[in-house]
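Re: Re: ligand-bound prediction request (bumping)

Still looking for help on this. To restate: I need the protein modeled with iron/sulfur cluster bound, output as structure tokens. Inputs repeated here so nobody has to scroll up.
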Amino acid sequence: MRGSRRSGKNGPLRSLFSRPVTGPSPEPPEPPDALNKARLHGSLQLRHIDVGSCNGCELEIASALGPKYDAPQFGVRLVASPRHADGLLVTGVVTHNMIGPLHQTLAALPQPSVIVACGDCAVNGGIFKDAYGVAGTLDEVVSPDVLIPGCPPHPAAIVQALRSLTGR
Ligand code: SF4
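Reply:
Sorry for the wait, this slipped through. Here it is.
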């Protein structure tokens, strides 16, 4: 009795004998330039920096890296130090308080590096562009390689944009 429950196709081990319920992932989008794809070899380690976000984009990034959208399966990971990173994932518009740390983080990145602007605030200043605490837009400090528009961007859009860099 116990043996038949374990080995039967409808038993607790049935997932070992059945096909996955998910379909294959779609092809990754084209990278912004061929050099980045070649250098990254399918793995992208990003240091995230919030230079003045409302935290909406952070929630969507957490979701993009979580089990549902699963960016790590495409080679994307966040790292704790810019010295270990292939690039920066920037959220928010550049505030007076964070322009110094942004310059320090950029200086600590190994070169060449990739800069990803995530959310409208990082892409073009967004709704906080003219606020009193804002020093300027990200593109006045560094030129982003990848833009992910949206306020906030959908986790699927974040994953799709990062896949253009890993090529996976
Ligand atoms: S783009 Fe929208 S969600 Fe993201 S930091 Fe700016 S205001 Fe917040």
